[in-house]
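INTERNAL TRANSFER SHEET
From: sequence group
To: structure group
Subject: Cysteine desulfurase

Please process the attached sequence and return the structure record in the designated field. Keep the field labels unchanged so the import script can parse them.
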Amino acid sequence: MFDIQEIRSQFSILNREVNGKPLVYLDNAATSQKPNSVLEVWNEYYTELNANVHRGIHTLSQLATEEMELSRRKIQKFINAKNDFEVIFTKGTTEGLNLISYILTSKLKQGDEIIISYLEHHSNIVPWQLLCDRTGAKLRVIPIDENGILQLDYLDQFLSEKTKVVSVNQVSNALGIVNPIEEIIAKTRANSNAYIVIDGAQSAPHFSIDVQALDCDFFVFSGHKMYAPMGTGILYGKQEILEDLPPFHGGGEMIAVCSFDGTTYAGLPFKYEAGTPNVGGNIALGAAVDFMNKIGHQNIQNHENALLDYAQKQLLKIDGLKVYGENANRTGVVSFNLEGVGISSDVGMILDKMGVAVRTGHHCTQPIMDFFNIAGTVRASFAVYNTFEEIDLLAEGVKKAQRMLS
Ligand code: 7TS
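Return from structure group:
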């Protein structure tokens, strides 16, 4: 049974008012709210368990280590990784993508190519540009059509023995478009020896993920977009690839032996987890996975898709409203502008006065905005706790903004 009121009751913040109106939180693609169960686990860690991990003989250190490793195994199951040591704790998707692009440096040379897409977040663009600067490799970008859909015939043209990396997101944060990553992975495997990187920042909160079925080499996501605290994230990498590549950060806990004559590295996952991790956050990420599992992936997806359909229908009733990616396969995001209203942030400010939180602007995806020749959009993004009544309030607010601004 999917009981939306029961789910909402687990999020204390949803009871608060903003500007004298009940909060309508529709900025979930930026970060989701956190259920009480996750906050309690986080709080419990600091009140009952706080100690550094993997380095203490004392009881608290051992208990904290056990809890964090239990969380790692929950996440392993969540993405169906073959081994728990293929699951690396990071502080988010940005760190994961920077880590991967850094450790691949020695594998690329002048003339090699990296393929990304027009739909990428800046954090799946800039790290690859930096890698190109370091190695002389070249970036190739899969274009989109006017619906925001990737033009995969370009991928066919781009793929060759020069392709060393293909890195794309599963879901676009700016438009909510679900990309055909299965097809992208199959084409890449068939036509190159490239490393395949999937940015799952906007898919892990909404879909069931199976990294073995996908057969990607890396899969990265952020905990804070899927009901866990900020400063948490996951890098999944295939065992043989992570074993072959060099470390990212050097420091404590990532060595086997350290001496001035030379240092050898610890095995996985510790080789990639130098320094004190975000222990409380990492344990709370396991609680966020429990929260999602309890509701069930199919229930989450069905509810969010119903919200998306309803939102698109209600918003498109408004004269002069354009939804970007209207005809594409999407999840959980409506990105739009009002004709004659130049600045999306004006709409966002009026919505905020009505308690409705959305994001406006370029959403860290300037190439998409350039493609549509706009400065930004208004973006409403949904989570499992959102309701149809909240979408009515959004539509009402947009109509009010249109009256005020035109
Ligand atoms: N990749 C995608 C697809 C994203 O949506 C984001 C964040 C990132 C990478 C970076 O994640 P971080 O957790 O390291 O910041 N996207 C957004 C957004 O849409 N609004 O705020 C952050």
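Handover comment: Residues 98 and 380 are 28 Å apart (CA to CA). Residues 59-79 form the longest helix (21 residues).
Transfer complete.
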